[in-house]
Write a structure and sequence with these properties.
5 helices; alpha/beta
Length: 210
Amino acid sequence: MITTGPTYEKIDPVRFIGNYSSGKMGLAIAEEFAGRGAEVVLVCGPVNLKTSHPAIRRVDVESAAQMYEVTSKEFVNSDVAVLSAAVADFTPKEKADHKIKRGKDDLLLELLPTKDIAAELGRIKTASQLLVGFALETNDEEVNALSKMQRKNLDMIVANDVTLQGAGFNSDTNIVKFLFPDGEVRELEQMTKAEVAEELLNTVLRLRKS
């Protein structure tokens, strides 16, 4: 199971809270896994990308709550899960059923935390399952990624500093580090996202053999 893309958290019928994730990294991972024999479930937020491999079963979602519901169901039957989606951490408490009109006063939105997909899957993960997370950071990349991996019971995490040129949202390349629970850090040079996906799958296969 692979997650990709952003989530959109509705404010009203025409506005939402979102992010710049294009879904390219997750799609590249899905294509790499499928191309090497895996049956892939791709849980995809709202993106314009198309999947091509017949072994990819795509499930489209919009919100963090929808992604949580689908991933919780699909993970039970998955050997490996790669959580590359940029899921919103907060969602509006109230969602208007009509377009909110401009007024003279400030508009205040009360936000509630979304359900933590990585933490929930880490909680229910069995010894035979492998759970890979992503940490998209703008500062203290390794420290934040290591903390996330430990708190959410991940088997490895891919750290990605989105402020670097040639990395991050909408780029066709990426610059990432693989971090592991034993403290190992493997830093990759700038690669295409397809090349990163290949390195990721090779690492996942080694972890499953160990």
